[in-house]
Amino acid sequence: MISNIERKSIVYLVGAGPGDPGLITRRGYALMRDADALVYDGLVDDELVRESHAPEKIYVGKTAGGHTLTQDEINDLLVDLATKDDGPRRIVRLKGGDPFVFGRGGEEALALADAGVPFEVVPGVTAGISAPAAAGIPVTHRKASAGVVLVTGNREDGRVRLPFRALVESGMTLSFYMGVASLSQITEELIAAGMESGTPAVVIQDGNLPSMRTVVGDVANIASLCDAAQVRPPSICVIGKVAALQHTLGAVIPRPLAGKTVMLARAEDLEYPEADGLRLRGARVIDLPVIRCVARAGDAKVDGLFAEVTSRDVVVFTSGVAAAMYLQFHRAHHGETVDDAKRPRFIATTPAIRRRILDLEPDREEGADDATLFRQVLCPAQPGAAAVLELLRELRVEKGATVWLPRSASAGDEYAQALRGAGYDAQPVALYDSVPQPIPADVRSRLLGGRVDAVLCMSGSAAESVVASVPELAEGDWPSILFAAIGQKTAAAMRRAGLRCDFVPDHPSRAEFFDAVVGPLTTGG
Q: Which of 20, 36, 41, 98 is an active site residue?
């Protein structure tokens, strides 16, 4: 450990893993998310870059015309970022795979050490082992290979210069990185060095991604097979006895959504872990916050709510975001201690919203009720305004009682109208605005290029934001894209915005939505 790092900037050389953004380590993800500056290359998934809060994001990967920066320039950039005179900063150098496995992380570490810049290496999952595993190939096996050799297929002066005879005589699995362009020379050299021409060989393109595909052959024909299949980087070539296991192990796990790309359009404060079910089925999920929730600080109606609310009142939450904003404003007005006289009865309209509310105060303890706002949160048996009215009757809430409805400024009036119709004093209060966020250029390009198979809209405002960013979606049929809504209200908003709606679940619950959408995604409609 380098001393005094608390008072100096530090550079983290972080491995992003081999494609799937879910394969970054927990530590690597936390550092990337909270970095002050992010320097990343072309093998880093765009989703990870979007999830970083870094105000400064610098791309240093390849472009169509070559590299954006040379390696020496990248080294200098890291040193410059760490030695700026604007206070301690956390700089994350995010690299595909592992930074010290053919990632030139060693060169960057030496440059940082020479400049006296503190750094830390955060390992990543390397493609030479994980891509074969994803394709059903264990790079070591007790009966087939006692070891694996990770080899670069990079060329020097137009040739790959490797100890081919030593590689063949090792008898170990050979896992080649960056070898697609040189595969013909590599295989010829291996055969010339004594490798049997029938030795199994497999090339994996886009390992650990929904677009992953494999080309299976032997060392004599794998190069020509890859040429015919137009295999491109990033690819890993595995040569050795273990490659034969791909036939047996490669199809063990059914992946009905393999090759599918799904865009999840949501508010930034609402997360959907249920979407992991799509990932487990093989889909690539582009998790895209298209709505930003901005608190209405200084709003007179908001101030009035927290001045007037009493224990006789009821507060109904129709979203977890509204509850989070309510807690934030309560603490701003009243501090951490909760006065029982200002603690109303709380109702969440669905069990999922109730769970989100209870998770807002994770440190609740026995005997610590004075600091717990959401001491009790009730939930009706069914979703909807009618079920809330039934719960109010069960609680014997008198007609004329005040029922507060904290919400977004763009929320509908269904609950307020139902409550007023039943004789309650419904008070909708907009705690926050839903501000549309532009869709990143790379996702827009995917949508218009036919490389997105489904757009899942999690709210009406999310659908409106999608159309605002990509109006072309409302101007054409786009038969290759499945447009889905989490509920009928969202479906209606989609149609008003000009989007087609192909699928709505029978019940507007998260779990049912993500399970039910698998069917039309698999069949294509």
A: 41
Active site includes 41?
A: yes
**What is the tens place of the pLDDT at every residue in 483-506?**
999 988 899 999 999 999 999 998
Neighbouring C-alpha atoms within 13 Å toward the C-beta of 498 = 15
Query: Buried (b) or exposed (e) across 218-247, using 16+ Cβ within 10 A?
Result: bbbebbebbeeeebeebbbbbbbebbbbbe
Burial of 60 (0-12, 13-18, 19+ CB in 10 A): buried
> Mapped to the 3 state alphabet, what secondary structure does 432-476 carry?
EEEEECCCCHHHHHHHHCCCCCEEEECCHHHHHHHHHHCHHHHCC
Model's pTM, two decimal places?
Answer: 0.70
CA 416 to chain centre: 35
Domain at 5-125: CATH code: 3.40.1010.10
Domain 129-249 in this protein, CATH class: alpha beta
Token couple for 466: 């999608």
Helices (H) and strands (E) in the chain, counts: 20, 21
Answer for the pair 241, 146: CB distance below 8 angstroms, yes or no: no
Mutual orientation of helices 183-192 and 222-229 as an angle, nearest 10°? 170
Radius of gyration of the chain (CA): 28
Domain locations along the chain = 5-125, 129-249, 254-525
For residue 41 the two structure tokens come to: 């290359």
Task: Out of 34, 62, 359, 425, pick the active-site residue.
Answer: 62
Q: Is 453 an annotated catalytic residue?
A: no
Q: pLDDT for 207-242, tens place per residue?
A: 988 778 999 999 999 999 999 999 999 999 999 999
User: Contact 202/214 with Cβ under 8 angstroms?
Assistant: yes
Class in CATH terms, 254-525: alpha beta
In the structure encoding, which two tokens stand for residue 525, read together? 């409609």
